[in-house]
Amino acid sequence: MTRHGLHRITRLRNGPRRKAIAVGVVGGSVVAGIVATMMPLLASDDLSIRAAADTTATAVSQDGDNAAKTTLATCPTRCDGNPRGGREAVIEFAVTTVPAAAVNIRATLRVHAWQQFAATVTAHASPLSAREARPPLASAGAALDSVTGVSKGANEWDISKLVTGNGTWTVSLAQSGLESRIYWASVENRNPDLRPSLVISYDIGARPSPVPTTKPAPPPSPSASPTTAAPKPSPTVAPTRTATPSASGTVPAGRCGSVSDKLVPSCGAWWGMYSPAGAAGGWDHGKAVTDVETQVGRKFDIVHRYHDFSNAGSNGAFPDMYEQQQMREGRLMFFAWESRDFSAGTTLKWSDVYSGRQDETIDAVAGRIRAAGVPVFMGFDHEPEDEPNKGSDADFVRAWRYVYDRFAKAGATNAVWVWTMMGWSGHYSRYANLYPGDQYVDWVAYDPYNFHVCNGSTVWKSPSTTVGGFYQWLDNNGIGAGKPRMLAEFGTNFNSADLGAKQRWFQEFPAALKAHPKIKAAIYFNSAGMTSRTATCDMTMNHDASALAGFAKAGQDPYLRQPTGGSR
C-alpha cells in the first residue's frame, strides 16, 4: 500500500484484496474451510478447529451466492419436486500443527441442524472447492461415515480416514432418504457455537529430540531507552548488535542463537513492529515503538519504518536519530524506501531512478547505510504491483537493480535486500516479471491481512489461511527459491460478532508461523490508517484489552523470542 508522509494512505483495499479472501458456499454442497493453527497438545487432548469458509454445491441458479449465506443445504438429486435440485455440503480443513510425533489421530466433523429429519447424510472426501459461490455438483469421493437420522443440534461424522495429519482436507455431505432440503449452520452464522467445526484428538508416540536451550553469551548492555525527549544524534557511534556470520541468505547451521550475515535466524522467526509516530506525540519515532513494547512486555526484534527520496529530515535522511538509538539498543532496522516525496506529495517514476537523476540521493543514503556498521534490512518500493503510475514491471526491475548496484558501488554491502509484494492472487501472473533476480534479492516478503469487513468481505480468515496463499504460490512457482521469507506487513481486524476472535487469532499466530517455516520474520503493521477506523473495523493490535492480551501472548512464544541481540 502506498504511503504519504509517515503514514500509509487511508484507503480501502477494494477489488483485489476482497477477491483474494472471498470464500463461497458451493451450490448443492456446503464447503467449510476450517484452519487449525493449534499449539502442540498432550496426548488425548481435543482440539476444536473453527470453520473458515463454506458453501453449497448445486445446479440451482436461483440459490444465488451460497458463500454469503448463514446456512448450508443438503438434498438428493430430486429435491422438493425439482428433478435437478440436488445440493451437497462440503467442508475444507487446513490442519497445520498436529505434532510430528502424533499417532492414532481421530478427526470428527460436527455440523449443526435445527430440526430432526428421517434422512441419511454421508460424509465423503470431496474434489470441490470451498471457496466458490456456487460450484457444480461433482462425483463424490470415498465415503467416510454416515449419520442415519439427523438430530436437532450437533451431528457428528468420523472422518479419521481422511484427516491423517497436517494438510488441507475437503469433505462433502450428501443426503439420501428424504427429498426435501435440510439446512445446516454455516461459518457465516452469527452464533459461533453453531458453526461447523473439526475436533481432532491424538496420542503422542516417540517424542522428537529436544532443541538445545543453551543461549550464547549476551551482547554488551544496550544504552538506556529513549524517553519522550528525542535522543541526541550519534551518527558516529556504531550499534552494538553483531550477527554471527554464516552462509549468505541461507538458514545458518548449528543450534539456536546464530544469525547469518543476511540476518536469517537459525531457529524460529523475528518479531517486528511498524508503529507510526504522530503530531500528538511530537513525532517521536522512538517512543512510538517503546510505548507498544511496554504494553506487550518485550522488545521487538525488528522496527519497520517508511522513508522517501527527499534526503531530508526523518522522512529522507535515514537512519535518523531514533533509528540510531534503536540499533544501539539491539533492534534490527527495516528501511522501506519509497520513490516519492512524502511532504511534497510527489511521486517519482522508476525511469527517474534508473536514469541517474536521483544518483545524489541514492549515494547519500547508501553512505549512511554503510556508516551504520551493521546489517540492516533494506527495501525499495514495496508493493510495486499497486503503483501503476510509476511505470511497467520491467521499469521496476531496472530501477531496483540500479539502486542495488549503486549501493554495492558505495560499499553499502551491509544492506540486506527485501523484495516486498502484496501477494494477491490477482497479480500472480505478474510476480515473475517483477522479480529482480536471485542475485539482487536476499529475502522475499509479502503483506497478508485478515481484513474481514474492513474491505467489504464477510470472511474471517485464520492466521494460517492469511499467510498461506502466497507462501504456497512461491513454493509452486520457484520465485526466490531457497531464500528466507518475511511478512513485511501483516494484520487482522476484529470480529464484531465474536469479540474474542481477534485475541484467539493472535494466540494462534505462532502456530501458523511454525506451519510455514520459511517465514523467518513477521512485522505487524499497527496503524489505524491502514484502512479506516469504524465500529466494525480496526486493524490495530492494541485497540482493546483482549486484542492486546492476545498479541502479547503471541510475542511470548519461544518461537518468536530469539536468544540474540540483547534481552527480549
Entry keywords:
eight-stranded parallel β-barrel; ten-stranded mixed beta sheet; 568 residues; disordered N terminus; alpha/beta
What can you see in these coordinates?
It is a single chain. Helix 8 links the parallel strand 21 and strand 22 (443-446). The chain has helices at residues 16-21, 285-296, 313-316, 321-328, 350-354, 359-372, 393-409, 428-434, 463-477, 501-514, 545-555; strands at 3-4, 7-8, 33-36, 46-53, 55-58, 71-74, 87-95, 102-113, 117-125, 143-150, 153-158, 167-176, 182-185, 197-204, 270-274, 302-307, 332-337, 340-341, 346-347, 376-380, 415-421, 443-446, 449-450, 485-492, 519-525. The two termini are 30 Å apart. With 568 residues, the protein is of the alpha/beta class.
How are the SSEs placed, and which strands pair?
Elements: E1 3-4, E2 7-8, H1 16-21, E3 33-36, E4 46-53, E5 55-58, E6 71-74, E7 87-95, E8 102-113, E9 117-125, E10 143-150, E11 153-158, E12 167-176, E13 182-185, E14 197-204, E15 270-274, H2 285-296, E16 302-307, H3 313-316, H4 321-328, E17 332-337, E18 340-341, E19 346-347, H5 350-354, H6 359-372, E20 376-380, H7 393-409, E21 415-421, H8 428-434, E22 443-446, E23 449-450, H9 463-477, E24 485-492, H10 501-514, E25 519-525, H11 545-555
Parallel strand pairs: 3-7, 15-16, 15-25, 16-17, 17-20, 20-21, 21-22, 22-24, 23-24, 24-25
Antiparallel strand pairs: 1-2, 3-4, 4-14, 5-7, 6-13, 7-12, 8-11, 8-14, 9-10, 9-12, 18-19
Helix pairs in contact: 10-11
